[in-house]
Every structure is written in C-alpha cells, then in structure tokens.
Amino acid sequence: MQSSPSPSSGKQATFSDECWSEDASASDTENFVKTLNRIRGKGVRPDLIASIITHYASKYLPALAGDDDTQPQAAAYGDGSAASRRKRRRFIETLVGILPQEKDSVPCGFLLRAMRVAGEVGAEAGCREEIERRAARQLDQAPLKELAALDFEVVVRLVRRFLSEVEVSRSGAALSKVARLVHSYLAEAAVDRNLTLPQFVALASAVPCHARATDNGIYRAIDIYIKAHPGLSKQERKNLCMLMESRKLSTEACLHAAQNERLPVRAVIRVLLSEQDKLSKHIDWSGFLAGLRSPGVGLAAPARCLSKREVRQEMEIRRLKEDVAILQRQCLIMERQIDKLLEKKKGYFSWRRLGGAVFKASKIGETVAGASLPFHSGGSRT
Q1: CA of 277: how far to CAs of 95, 140, 249, 321, 331, in Å?
Q2: Which one, of 144, 164, 165, lies nearest residue 155 by Cα?
Q3: How far apart are CA 120 and CA 105, in angstroms?
Q4: pTM assigned to the model
Q5: End-to-end CA distance of the chain
Q6: How many whole angstroms separate alpha carbon 154 and alpha carbon 134?
Q7: What distance in Å separates the CA atoms of residue 112 and residue 158, rounded to the nearest whole number?
Q8: What angle in degrees, to the nearest 10, is found between the helix axes of 197-204 and 234-241?
Q9: Residue partners of 351: CB distance under 8 A and separation at least 6
Q10: Per-residue pLDDT, 368
Q11: Alpha carbon distances (Å) from 323 to 110, 263, 319, 337
Q12: Of 55, 66, 189, 309, which has the fewest CB atoms closer than 10 Å, so is most exposed?
C-alpha cells in the first residue's frame, strides 16, 4: 500500500522549489550583469547600455514595463509570495546599481516605475534615495501617467528636489515643462476627495511664478478642486484663487472665470479688471500701429484692397472691442452688487448700534427712576 505524502513533506518541496527559483533568477541576473560589464568595457554609449538594461528589466518584471513593451515572461515575478517579494527587492537593488550615471541616459518614465516598485518591495533606503534623486533630476521629461501613479507626497518631494538643482536656474524650458506637468498633475489629483487643501497648496506654490508662462493650467486645477470639494469655506476658496495670477490667464480662461459661480466674487473682479486692462492696451497699440500705416494729412490714400492679414487684424480688433464691452458690463454689474451688499451690511450694523443705544438709554432711565424712588418716598414721610 502506497503511503500518501505528509503535509510537512509538501511544505519542504514548496520551500525547495522557491529556493531553486530564487537561485535560478539570481544566477540569471548575475550572468546578465557580467555580460553587461563586458559590453560596457567595449565603450558602448550609456544610452545604449540603459536600453539593454530597461529591456531586460521589463522582460522579467512587468511593473517596470512601459506601454510599448511586450512581456512574454511577465509572470516570472508575478505572484505575491514572500519569495517573489525578495526576488523583486534583490532585482531592483541590483538594477539601480548597474544603471548608467550619465544624465538623460535612462528614461525618466522608467526611473519613476522603478521608484514605485522599490517602495512596494521595501528596497533599501539608499536604493530608493538614488532612484528618487535621478528621477527628480529629469523631472521635466516625466510622463504624466507615471507621475500620477506615485503618492502625492512623493510628487511634492520630486518637484522640490528638481527646483533645488543648480542647473535648473539656467534652463527656462525645463522649468516651464515642470510647471505645466505640475498643473496637469494637480488637475488629475484634484478630484480626490482625500486630497487636503494644504497638500494642494503646497504643490501648487512649489512652482515659482517666473516658471509659469500661463496660469490656465493652475486655474483649471483650482476649478476642479473647488468643484470636487463643495465643503470649502469662502476664505479657503479665496486662498486657492490667490495661487493664480489673473494677468497670466488667456482671454478664453478669463471669460470662463467671469461666468464661474464657484469662484469668489472678488477673484472674478480681479480677473475681469486684468483682462480689461490687457485688451485696452492691445487695442491702443493696434490703433497706434494703424495710425502709423495711415497716410499723412493732406495726402490722398492710395486705393488698394486690404490684405488677408489686415482683414484678420481688423476682425480681431473688432472682436476684442466686443469682449472689452462685455467685460466692462459684467464688471459694472458686479461692482453694483458689491455696493448693494456693503450698503445692506452698513445699514444692518447702524440699526444694530442704534437699537443698542436705545436699549442702553432705556435701561439707564429705568435705573435712575428706580434709584430716585426711595428719595421721593422719604420726602413724603417728612
């Protein structure tokens, strides 16, 4: 009679299988590192070395693969056992150690995925620090999709670290890219009900004003956040609107803000006044240029047809004048509404003060009258 295998023997077999799998994967990684070092010794460019590493890593660890990578062996590290976690941790730590050190040699998207995996598997602090440092240095190349997969606090650290780099101050293009990336990320994260106002403000204010060519992105993020968090107080909405500069909004964004009921009234007025000022300056400048092109006094203007460019300019000036008129009307209506509100508040407080004075006077009269009663009664007794 054949004896059935005991549970302990099954556990031993499973443990031995995991050990063999770990040894095999470790052996494969060691062989890859040796082969890579031989290739590196032949003077191959760092970007090609990085391409070899990212291809190998994406083949065995699907979390490191981008959208364009195919994974025939994606299940090699797919289970969630402790052995799989150890393998992934060892693999990611080895991977970081062999990456080329030259800037821009490794795609930023791959670094962000590696940083996320390193946090998931509990890699050493030095390993996580190195990946974060390198990803922050190339943050202007980061894909929004990969950035959105990270924790909010990690993104804040990356942005601040990027801005602390010395060479960033010399590259306005890199700053502008990061500013647009941060605004897009904020618009994605703003729908999260768990995102607090201090977190939103911390990331939005991390980007300096001179790095933002336009504030359309931050206005969109603010609008989404206010819509997703209806419980914000009036003062909190005012604080949010202070993050954007009205003069950096486009005409379309200004018109949208003018009709946005979620914004505080004073924020809308600032936007309208700023847009009115910009449009007035543009019209004045266009009129000045038109005066330079017009013939002098006493000279007959040559009869000719307007060019397509001039026709477009005339149409644009006419449209801008109409926009100015609309903005002026809206601004006037809002100013009247504010004046009415102030008058109502002023009248309320004046009536309150008058009523208080009358109340106090009546109380004083009662007190005086009450105090004089014993005197009169005493006099009657005499």
Answers
A1: 56, 33, 12, 12, 12
A2: 144
A3: 25
A4: 0.67
A5: 134
A6: 14
A7: 10
A8: 10
A9: none
A10: 37
A11: 47, 20, 6, 21
A12: 309
Closest listed residue to residue 307, CA positions, set 299, 318, 315, 295: 315
Q: How far is CA 138 from CA 72, 174, 184, 273, in A?
A: 30, 9, 17, 39
Q: Rounded distance, CA 302 to CA 304, Å?
A: 6
Residue whose pair of structure tokens reads 């190195």 in the numeric block: 130
Which amino acid, 271?
V
The rounded distance, in Å, linking the Cα atoms of 114 and 131 is 7
Q: Which DSSP string do the residues of 298-342 spell out, in sequence order?
A: TSPPP--PPPHHHHHHHHHHHHHHHHHHHHHHHHHHHHHHHHHHH
CA quadruple 107, 113, 116, 119: dihedral positive or negative?
Answer: negative
Q: What sections of the chain are H helices per DSSP?
A: 7-41, 46-60, 82-98, 108-121, 125-137, 144-148, 152-164, 172-189, 197-204, 216-228, 234-241, 251-258, 265-293, 308-381
pLDDT in tens, the chain (382 residues): 444 454 444 444 443 444 434 444 556 788 888 888 888 888 889 999 999 999 999 887 888 887 644 444 444 445 567 888 888 899 999 999 899 988 889 999 999 999 999 999 999 999 999 999 999 999 999 999 999 999 999 999 999 999 887 555 556 888 899 999 999 999 999 999 999 999 999 999 998 888 888 999 999 999 999 999 999 999 999 999 999 998 898 888 888 888 898 998 888 888 888 877 776 665 555 554 455 454 444 444 455 566 666 666 667 667 767 776 777 777 778 777 877 777 776 665 554 554 554 444 444 444 434 444 343 334 433 3
Which residues have CB under 8 Å from 215's CB, separation 6+?
244, 245, 248, 249, 253
Structure tokens at 282: 């543009």
pLDDT at 281: 64
pLDDT at 308: 66
